[in-house]
ABC transporter permease
Amino acid sequence: MASAATGRAAMFKVSLRNLAAHKLRLALTVLSVLLGTSFVAGSMVFTGTISNAFSSIFDNVALGTAVQISPEKGQSAGVPDSVLDEVTARRSELGADRIVADYRGTVTLAKANGKALSTGGAPSIGSAFLPPDQRLSDTDSALKPGGRAPTGDTEIALNAAAADKAGLHVGSRTKVVTGAGSSMPIPVTVVGILDVPGDTGGFVNVQFDQSFAKDMFTDGSHSSYIAMSAVRGVSDDQLKQRVEQLVGNGYKVQTGDEIRQEEKDRINQFLSVFNYILLAFAAIGLVVGTFIIYNTFSMIVAQRVRELALLRAIGASRGQVTRSVLFEAFVVGLLGGVLGLGIGIGIAAILRAVTSGSGLPHASLAISATAVIATILVGVIVTMLSAWAPARRASSISPVEAMRESMTDGASSLRGRTIVGTVLGIIGIALIVIGAFGEGTGPAITVGAGAVAVIVAVVLVAPALSRPIVGAMGTVLGKPFGKLGLLARTNAVRNPRRTAATAFALTLGLMLVAMIGTIGTSFKHTVDTTVDAGIKADLILSSSNQGTVPASVRPTVSRVDGVSQAVGFGGISATVDGASVVGTSPSGPIGSVLSVDKVGGGKFGPQEQVPADGLWVSKSKSGDRGWAVGDTVTFTGPSGTTVPVRVEGVYDNNQLLGNWLMGSGAYERLMPEVLRSDQVILVKIAPGQSLSVVKKRLEDATGDFLTVSVQDRAEFKGQVSSQIDQMLSVLYAMLGLALVIAVLGIVNTLALSVIERTREIGMLRAIGMSRAQVRRMIYLESVLIAIFGAVLGVLMGCCFGAALVSTLKKWGIGDPVLPWSLIITTLIGAAVVGVLAALWPASRAAHIRPLEAIAE
């Protein structure tokens, strides 16, 4: 027992001394682990920080509210006044104390310079000002000294953070635009600044006189919600139960705690998605890192053959040799995890600083025990799993066999994995082809499964592929360099496992780049062709803040000189047979601004409109719902109004129009005026008019609405393409982590290869090879490995991306388009990366002293 313990201690001591003796090798391996774990730590700490910040804000939501009654559905006319009257009349029976009705809606506030105040995605809400005797909490939106309550229809009170950001103060004059309804921009004066609890995050709250807020945000017979406090002795849950029994179904009744928890759950759901995205990229980096770690430990074991053989000769068991290598991996993983945690915290701090200007709430860094433990465990587990195969290989070394000069990977050792990989690749390709000819979620999953199978197949087959492919590339690229090119080619194909593992780290990163690039390029091409073929309008008016255009904009546009036709597409949210549906209602002839094909042939004519009480449906919606021409469909609107409409026709699927079009008469009966707004307004200019001149007139006419954007077709396409490019840039930046790790892998492999080939390089130097020639030889090896990885990655990525795009035809996405500029840039970049990755290893190789190397 004692001797076994002594043996284990001795082996651990050997492992530690081995790590200490090869500090550079240790540093390179730790770095490959560190890069992945730092991303894990950074994402967990940052999202935890933001979550805590929002939680502190939501702790101040619905202060003093025991129970709140709100509409069951999101877009609704609100809670009828009859409910307010009934609750008020039975206040004592319910056990309610104060009861208040609020009236609110979306608004846009102008800054002191007349431009719209951006919220960075936070809500911008208009609501009713409540005097102190009506508030449910003494700390809820109290007026700061020097201000007063707004009265009439030209005064507002404003939360302090929004006032500071907008450059407004008591006495400032500005204007407010509502997000829906037919009201025009409202000139207002700031008469009060509000001290709102948790006033941060870009949130804007504009408060109006109660009666004016009701007129502006409701139809006059509803409130946005009803809130109440409970008398002493009645719990929130008791009051909730009594209110539920009173109001019945159709309303959402919640306690204050439930409202706060709902808000927290909503932001945490968003943050969890954000966190999963960050962790997905961290996982990609770690997967790439596993190939580097595997390669590194494989080379370390190969270089320590004699050392390990000697240990076996003096009594070390196979298990002890395996554990010694795994212990080294444990130390590397532990160091990588701990250092990655520190750097990840730094990344989170930088992200917090960068996002502080966007209106996100500020909070101290949330370094949870979960983040610490997860980061370190990920580092240790990934490293030890990656080193497992090399450790097992080390234990199989027999003392006599290992005393040979070197160990070689025979071609026979590749035969089994190549056969398995080939079969798996055929299955994967078949799945991709089958999925590519389908449409929807199922085929996309099939393509994904096939892609995974192909990736695994390439991992298995890559060593066998590396010899012919790298050999052929080496012949072509190395020819101008003569014997140096031949040597570089020979060295690159000498160890196919090592070459494949090093190259595949780059393959995985570039595969994702090419796949995302193919999808993005296809999306942009679809946008271009759809706009060119489908939009006949000359100008497009939309909301610049991702919202809708107020209904009062279209009449203003129609009166502008040079406008021939202005067709607004009013947004509709309703229910049919209990299911929520969304659609649009064109205000004029569709054929004048859009090219729309009818099922059965023909197009909408220039003056053809949807009948006032009729409905046109898309081909797909007609099939899904079973709606045929002549059928009557009953819609239930936000205020509960039911409107029967007759199906008048079916049009081919058109992503510009959506699933159905309702006539203007039915639309006006279905949607309350305060909820009406246009998703977009399409404008056709009169013959002989200058596009630029009419565009300028429209910009001037709609400027007071603050958020209306006027674009021609080229600008509209450019905006959509720019949004796609921004999203792609973020994804490419995140994939940069995997590419950095892959480049590090090439550096690591070449550096260890130089150490392994010290005697060989010394011999070449002794027979006349110059230092410059040694450098060029290493450069060429690195370039061959990098281009091999890039070719595999680009080929797989483009195929996977094209297959996924093919499954999206149901949603109007066109045929796949390859990103040729990205492909060419990637291949050229791979060659450059190969040279850069080889700079340091080549310099080390060039400075090897011939005599010392031969004597080693």
